[in-house]
Amino acid sequence: MLPPSPKKPPQNKLGLSHAFLQCADLILPWLTPQELANVSLTCKTLHRAAHSITLYRSLDASRSFENFPIPFHNTVDQYPYAYFFYTPSQIIPSSSSSSSLNRQFWGPNSSQTLVLPDSGSSDAEMGCTLDSMDLLGGSWVSVMDESGCECERCEKVSEDNVIGCPCMELEGDEGMGIRSECGPSCGCRLECGNRLSQRGIQVQLKIVKDVRKGWGLYAAQWIQQGQFICEYSGELLTTKEARRRQQIYDKLASDDHFSSALLVVREHLPSGNACLRINIDATRAGNFARFINHSCDGGNLSTVLVRSSGALLPRLCFFASKDIKEGEELTFSYGEIRVQPKGSKCFCGSFSCLGTLPSEHT
């Protein structure tokens, strides 16, 4: 006599289970780490789904926006990744950005869905795709004019040794950390040799947690001197807003678990009588460059202001100032030290370490 065949679950239960998993795939990537942890305690199915999202996030901080995945490596504590809003370029926060910086999709197909704004946002502010100009409650920095070269192949000097690409003529003194590149209105394409910082990262990197310094950016391969590393992206702030946030960050700096990523860059104009100040805050929204730590000896990265022809504002970019070995941490100098009684300690480990992290004079 044959044993009874196992009972199959009712078809309607299978359908409900499938629908439940589909809903989980749509909702869980919007959750914060704490919310994911709470959800994972409810049932085995959601525990597995939440674990899958956590693993996915730890494997790529860039949400697939970059040419290579940038994984997290943490053997220090139980937090497998750092949570922040990702933007591959500078953004201008809107007046309501504090309320719209609520959610960002971080899961499979992250590069296709960016931000979930508040319910009061219009369709134009939804920021659902990378092609949209609205991101994180703000907009991409794209103010520019129509100036640009008409070169098919840009060179400093043409074949007849008379004149080269006009975009390269704007290049400043190398010691100033300024370079010019072709822009959106130029006739050349992305393959142009004068668009070094516009093709995304070309080296493999990783984010590693240190017991004292916290998260840091490390080379996952050998990097040659002069190689473009990345742009420092984040919210582009007015000086008034930067000062307001810096005061808040200074108060929070006493907590060892908090670290701000507000960078202030000053470009001295050719006249010498004025200075252009650029405030980029990657504390809440930025790219993987926010993990680059300070080194009192200057580190192995050089900061360069890159101006693209026709663009209103320059971009802050990092280049390798020396050959960098695989596994070596990428660092640069945050600037001059501002003595504070409660200043954050520096753990750069260099022979010239001053013991305190630089803090911007706002």
Automatic annotation (TrEMBL):
<dbReference type="InterPro" id="IPR046341">
    <property type="entry name" value="SET_dom_sf"/>
</dbReference>
<keyword id="KW-0158">Chromosome</keyword>
<dbReference type="InterPro" id="IPR001810">
    <property type="entry name" value="F-box_dom"/>
</dbReference>
<dbReference type="GO" id="GO:0032259">
    <property type="term" value="P:methylation"/>
</dbReference>
<dbReference type="InterPro" id="IPR036047">
    <property type="entry name" value="F-box-like_dom_sf"/>
</dbReference>
<keyword id="KW-0479">Metal-binding</keyword>
<keyword id="KW-0949">S-adenosyl-L-methionine</keyword>
<dbReference type="Pfam" id="PF00856">
    <property type="entry name" value="SET"/>
</dbReference>
<dbReference type="GO" id="GO:0046872">
    <property type="term" value="F:metal ion binding"/>
</dbReference>
<keyword id="KW-0808">Transferase</keyword>
<dbReference type="InterPro" id="IPR001214">
    <property type="entry name" value="SET_dom"/>
</dbReference>
<keyword id="KW-0862">Zinc</keyword>
<dbReference type="GO" id="GO:0005694">
    <property type="term" value="C:chromosome"/>
</dbReference>
<protein>
    <recommendedName>
        <fullName>SET domain-containing protein</fullName>
    </recommendedName>
</protein>
<feature type="domain" description="Post-SET">
    <location>
        <begin position="342"/>
        <end position="358"/>
    </location>
</feature>
<dbReference type="InterPro" id="IPR050973">
    <property type="entry name" value="H3K9_Histone-Lys_N-MTase"/>
</dbReference>
<feature type="domain" description="SET">
    <location>
        <begin position="203"/>
        <end position="335"/>
    </location>
</feature>
<dbReference type="GO" id="GO:0008168">
    <property type="term" value="F:methyltransferase activity"/>
</dbReference>
<dbReference type="Pfam" id="PF12937">
    <property type="entry name" value="F-box-like"/>
</dbReference>
<dbReference type="InterPro" id="IPR003616">
    <property type="entry name" value="Post-SET_dom"/>
</dbReference>
<keyword id="KW-0489">Methyltransferase</keyword>
